[in-house]
Amino acid sequence: MPHLLDKSWILYSTSQKHPFYISDNPVTLFNVNQDPVKGTLGLRVPGIEIHRPLTGTFCLGVICPTIEATIRESYELARRLGHPVPLRVIGAREVLRLAFHSAGAFRFRSRSRQATNATSSSTSRLA
Residue 36: left (phi > 0), alpha (psi -120 to 50), or beta? Predict the structure, then answer.
């Protein structure tokens, strides 16, 4: 459990028109850092991303803090270039509260949601 608590918790949201896929194997593990010698899907491995759709419109992301840093850098760059992105930084308890009370969070654009659904479909592993 401590390894999950050390991660950054993100609640993504999308619209009813472009829902997340929910299946009989909804938890996905993904890591952009590939290693030909050892596995990269462990909870303590740098770059790990764990996603679990909670509803058709909410998805919980438990991600490596290095990924969160990349998201923040991208957000700041977009803001500086005049392309604000809706983002609200909150703690893990607030993520869960929002998830179960259907309040706002990080809104996905259709293209981003399709990428998440594609990752969910193609790299799905039982956690």
Answer: alpha
